[in-house]
Design brief:
Length: 248
Amino acid sequence: MTMHIVTARNLTKDYNSLRAVDGINFMISKGECFGFLGPNGAGKTTAMSMISCFMPPTSGVLKVFDINVTDNPSLIKSRTGVMPQEDNLDVELSVYENLIVYARYFDITGKEASRVVWELLEFVELREKSGVNIRKLSGGMKRKLILARALLNNPELVILDEPTTGLDPHTRHSVWDKLKHMKSLDTTLILTTHYMEEAENICDRVAIMDTGSIVTIDTPANLMKAHGGNLEKAYLNLTGKHLKEQVL
């Protein structure tokens, strides 16, 4: 039987008079990579923020690990890793120190913390940069370090908000390889991206969102087949059609 890591039913989020997420429904299975695609303001990041327990839903049901997000957010967070879009590393610390300090949030200390940090630095190819101050890292190195930080607690679910934005093609493919390896270990991934190639390469299914609603959920292969073999064309056709329907 398929185990659902995330279940959302009629999930809604309002900011005063603005409805950012409008009654969406989806389920994400264990070991799946599920992507949210959509234009800016579509509700992708808001949906991710609710899943990661950084903000409560206004209404509807949202369960992660079969736990209601409003019942025990601390337990959900302890089993989840988050890679935010923004760079929020501590610029006063080195690469190694950033991870060691963050490990304390999960009660990982001493020799165990050091072991975990060195393993992650090896995984993201930053071991030789361990003593370097954050200010001296390239943008790609910072993104890799933020990914490593998201994995400190050996999470069952990893949430990635535009993980490769601004990276050069070589570094982007390197991050893709890391994410594929995590999938091979049955880690569940949820990501937002504006790169259609990224969705094609990593995601098992994608939800295309527009103005707070989910237009469709399907595999990249099915969407490409239905729209001339091109995921970007499918994306543009579906979001454009949704907008036209709203105008009418």
